[in-house]
Each structure stands twice: as structure tokens, then as C-alpha cells.
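Exercise 7. Predict the structure of BED-type domain-containing protein from Daphnia magna.
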Amino acid sequence: MPKRKTSAVWDYFEDIKVDDRRVWRCVLCKETRDFKGNTSNLWSHLANSKDDQHIEAHHSIKDKCQPPRKITKKTDNRPARLLDIDTDVENENSEIAEDGVMLPAFASTSAASISCETYELGHMPYSISSLKLKGFFLALGLYISRAMQPLSLVEEKNFREFVLHIDPRLTIPCRNTMTHTILPNLYREAKAKLVKELEGIKQVALTTDCWTSINNEGYMTVTVHYLSDKLKMVSRVLNTIMIEESHTAVNLAKELRKIVTEWNLMNKISAVVTDNAANIVKAVSDINNWRHVPCFAHTLSLAVKDAVLKNKDFKTILTNCRDIVTYFHQSNLATIKLHALSTGEKSKLQQDVS
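Solution. The predicted structure, encoded as C-alpha cells:
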């Protein structure tokens, strides 16, 4: 028994066989083509035709499958963040559909489309230019960046099944599209907004720090701090760069000037906060001639370490405490026995930061 056709597009097509080949035939223009297993090419036939009958048929089916959504003005009064899905778009008067999709957005993808002929909200995959798909791409990009998820998430089988269970008409972008299109677009949009915001700021402070990754790669991050027009403290990371040269004062000063120039902040710096390392202090105060402010937390840490080293008795006690914590961290049986002897809420022993 042939499968019942539930898609409304079949109102304008016939499913026939020609020379043992399954083909469809348009009842409007009698054109026939091979049937590919889904209704995508049927929809395309109606959508791409300039004939009035085809255009009217296409609009009629779209109205059946996807009734118009109610549009409401956004009323959320939360503080705006860079690239908030409901605030940070090119059109400041953006609107949000009741299903949470931001209407003005961007994105593009080359991933294969997904079709579902029996889904209750519609039959066709969203077109690449649809507001729904653009909103999905934006939300996915924000989720990956804000939650620090791996880009491989979009290729993970269970995640893809989860998304398609919510709406089978969605096209999930591939990892390459996320890397080279969606996330770069998000970054450019966030940067443009921050540049515009910083244009109205007269004074800023910078913090910067250098570190080495587990792969033995040197990095430096620069963060800007300023008061908004509503007198709220705002902190934004300007850049995190790999330092491929020696961490000399000259090289660090050069990289700092490059970042500050890129963001047009050269004449707005009131102070730069760093740790007490000699190279970064010289780069800030001696070479770039900026006001240097030592990091209070780092200064306090140095003072405590110095006091511990000079007090032999306290140093011995601290060493013994570290050894005890290390022992329990390395022994599962000892930890179980400790919990059995403990009363009240169980908590993991914490090692201090040396």
C-alpha cells in the first residue's frame, strides 16, 4: 500500500511512473522530473517559477504549513551585553517573535538541508535566508562562545538529534561554517559595537597579564575597564594574542601599543594594572610612558610568601599541611575513611595556591 502523502505540496503534483522510474508531474505546467525521495524539488519548482499560477500555489501552501507568527516588541529591561540576542543587532528597533527568534540577524551556511514531511509546524526546511534559520545560527554561535563549548559540538550525534527533535526543519551548520562564517561574524559585530561604545569614553584603564599554556605557548591578554554613560563599571577583553617572541620589555611594549592603537585608545589611558614582573613594568612605565599601577592581589601574594619564607616555624607547619592534603588527594581509601570519621557536611580538602 503506497505511503500516504501528507505534504500540502502534493496538491499540485502527481506521483507517477515512467519506464519504471518514479517521477513527479506538475499539474499546472505538466513538467516531469525524477523523484528524489523528498519534496524539496517540488517546492523549488513552485518557488522558482515566474508563472502567476505557480507563485499563487506556492504562497497558498506556505500559508497552510507556516501560519504567520505574532510579532511583539521586546520589553526585556535586562542590562545589554555585547551581542545579546535581543539587543545587539544592526537595527536598534529589532523585534522578537513569540518563539524567541530575533528577527534581524545574519548568517550563512553550506550544510545540507533537512526535510520532514510530517512535522506539524511545516513541511519544508527553512530556506538559507529565512529569519528563523538566521536566528538559530546566531543563538548557536552565542551558546558555543559564551558556554565555551567545543566547535565539534555541531558534529556530535546526540546534539544533532536533540536539535532536530525540537524542529526538524532546522539546518545544523557544520564545523567549518561555524569556524569561518558564524563565529567570525559574531566577533566582527561585537567588535564594531565595542569600538562605537569606546568612541564616547574619555578615560579607560587597562589590565594585562602574560602566561604560558600547557602546550608551552606564550600568551598575553589585554582588558579595558571604563564607566558607561550610566556610571556602571564595564570590563571588556580587547585581545588575547600569542607572543611568539621573547617576553622582553621591548616586545611586550610593542604588542601593547599595537592593541591600543587598534582600538583607538592611545590618548585615553589613565592607568595600566599589571603584576610586578620587571619586564611588563618596564614595558608600561618606561617604554610606553603610561601610568603603572601594581596589581594589589599579586603584591599581597608576594608579601605573604616573603613572610612565610622568613618564618621557619610557620613554613614547617605549612609544608606539613600541604603534605597531608596531598596524601588524601592521592589515596581513595584514605579519603573514604576520612569521610566516614567526619561529621556534618563532607567537603573536599583544598590545597593552597603556592
